[in-house]
Amino acid sequence: MQDKIICLPKRVQPSQNHSSVSNVSQAVVSATPLPPTKPSPTNPVTVEMKGLKTDLDLQQYSFINQMCYERALHWYAKYFPYLVLIHTLVFMLCSNFWFKFPGSSSKIEHFISILGKCFDSPWTTRALSEVSGEDSEEKDNRKNNVSRSNTVQSGPEGNLVNSQSLKSIPEKFVVDKSTAGALDKKEGEQAKALFEKVKKFRIHVEEGDILYAMYVRQTVLKVIKFLIIIAYNSALVSKVQFTVDCNVDIQDMTGYKNFSCNHTMAHLFSKLSFCYLCFVSIYGLTCLYTLYWLFYRSLKEYSFEYVRQETGIDDIPDVKNDFAFMLHMIDQYDPLYSKRFAVFLSEVSENKLKQLNLNNEWTPDKLRQKLQTNAHNRLELPLIMLSGLPDTVFEITELQSLKLEIIKNVMIPATIAQLDNLQELSLHQCSVKIHSAALSFLKENLKVLSVKFDDMRELPPWMYGLRNLEELYLVGSLSHDISKNVTLESLRDLKSLKILSIKSNVSKIPQAVVDVSSHLQKMCIHNDGTKLVMLNNLKKMSNLTELELVHCDLERIPHAVFSLLSLQELDLKENNLKSIEEIVSFQHLRKLTVLKLWHNSITYIPEHIKKLTSLERLSFSHNKIEVLPSHLFLCNKIRYLDLSYNDIRFIPPEVGVLQSLQYFSITCNKVESLPDELYFCKKLKTLKIGKNNLSILSPKIGNLLFLSYLDVKGNHFEILPPELGDCRALKRAGLVVEDALFETLPSDIREQMKIE
């Protein structure tokens, strides 16, 4: 519709008394261009209304209408439709700008996308159904936590509690487990991807508050706009009139100056302006309520306290900034969205999903394929670098040893009690939590525990209560002042402990170790080069039968060792021993059968080693020994003698005295010949003479009927004696020799050796 006015010349009635010439002349000029008639006493003067006689009557009226529209009509009546349009566009811009601005629209779109996927994800239903089926112990703990939180409302987080959401849903959301079917692999992977998206989205959105600030500003702007519209419209709505007087100076062109005009749209505009005021008032009140809602409580903080109490997922974190604001906004639509979204903020829920995916990936049949026999002759299942511990492990009831390596956040459940044969547990760089029922089972059944750690905090605190534990292996970096460490004091409760191995960097034997010395039978300390001092505590370990002090930077054999009358085996590997004159004191250790002084800097063997008549195994390998004393071979019980990697040039013929000798190694020395007396040791099974300067292998080697392993590689032999064929136990796999040298044997002997 076109807004216009229609104007007509206005009839002017002159005054009866003609009081002034100016009024008459004005009337004459304005009313008619013709000279007036003379008045009669009986008739008043009437001015005839006539326009100038031209051929442009229609154009004149159009011109008059346009001039009066521009000059006489009030601006509010003219521009009312445009004002309404402009105000509407401003309101639309204020309301929709944050949906178009890149910095805010991307967050909103991403949030809506993730929110919809979280709401529809089957994992949401599954997670809440898991909560409904949790065990009574966890329920009781949560009830206690809830009761405590209800009594502490005045704490420093009181403001946050006051702003908690979802109070509009009093009923508890419980899912029937029968409807929460098992997730397939695809659904599990989709839920896992959702957790990652939510985690990254939260980190990104919580950094700023651009959405909140933008929403506050646009709401404030709309309120101000509303107040302005109400103010000026209320004041100017009366200016919209149907009849308008128009006085324009166009007499020269039309013959008239005063006109009466009709504004054709005035009636409609008047009604519309009142309606517009009503609509704007309603919209403005909505904006005022929004402003009140924004400042009534902090929308930059969002508490899931009510969700935590209702669902039982206690680790759902509270959020802030734009993330909190968007959750408050979605609550205005449907609080159930936030509730289901909260599942994907919980690490407990994420861990349960990982557990479910893990169980689907590692079936019992697949785990059984990984079973192997370990060094302790137990059936072991090694699991390395998994995302968790599959529940399917506890279906393998024949399992005896469980080895977990580089697995974070391991939770040992009560179902471990199904493993009736489990005796050994290895934890290598794993952070482990354990269910109370599982701990009770391990206290009764676990015999061997191995823990490898990078930090003392990774040591499981529950290990100190394993009262039936017999073997404990600790590998990791400990404090130098470990004796003052409170956690190791609890070792005294391990009443059944027999073997203790510590591979670390201790400077002295921990007091906690001394506390279990009464029943400790074997102790191993591998010190990685840290000097071990103050060894007097060893004297208290009267029942110790095996002692290993490896890489402890010892320069002498500790005197405290000579007090261990029950000692049977002593290993002083990788120390800094140069002289072993103290070896004579070993004669008091009548049970000592194994002595390992390998990987040191020993230059000679004292003659009084002959007094160690109980020795059965002796190792001097990787030293700097040049001469072998003949008295060494007076230890006639020796079955194992390792002299490899030294500078020995000559083997005394007294070696033939060792009639019990089964293992003899002089690998990597400078020996040029072997005494024939060596072949009197007819029980010899392993002979290692490789990497020497030997040129002839005596035919008497055929006397060694039990020989099963012979290493002659790296010498100067040109031919092997055919008498090797008399060594019936010696096969090709047990003969270490150059291929060309092996071909010097007769063909029948070669064929005989190749037969397994």
Automatic annotation (TrEMBL):
Gene3D superfamilies xrefs: Ribonuclease Inhibitor
Keyword Disulfide bond: yes
Keywords associated with the record: Cell membrane, Disulfide bond, Endoplasmic reticulum, Ion channel, Ion transport, Leucine-rich repeat, Membrane, Phosphoprotein, Repeat, Transmembrane, Transmembrane helix, Transport
InterPro entries cross-referenced by the UniProt entry: Leu-rich_rpt, Leu-rich_rpt_typical-subtyp, LRR_dom_sf, LRR_domain-containing, LRRC8_Pannexin-like
Subcellular compartments: Cell membrane; Endoplasmic reticulum membrane
SMART domains: LRR_TYP
Reactions listed under catalytic activity: 2',3'-cGAMP(out) = 2',3'-cGAMP(in); chloride(in) = chloride(out); taurine(out) = taurine(in); iodide(out) = iodide(in)
Polar residues compositional bias, start-end: 144-163
Cellular component per GO, a single term: plasma membrane
Record protein name field: Volume-regulated anion channel subunit LRRC8C
Organism whose genome encodes this protein: Galemys pyrenaicus
Higher taxonomy: Eukaryota, Metazoa, Chordata, Craniata, Vertebrata
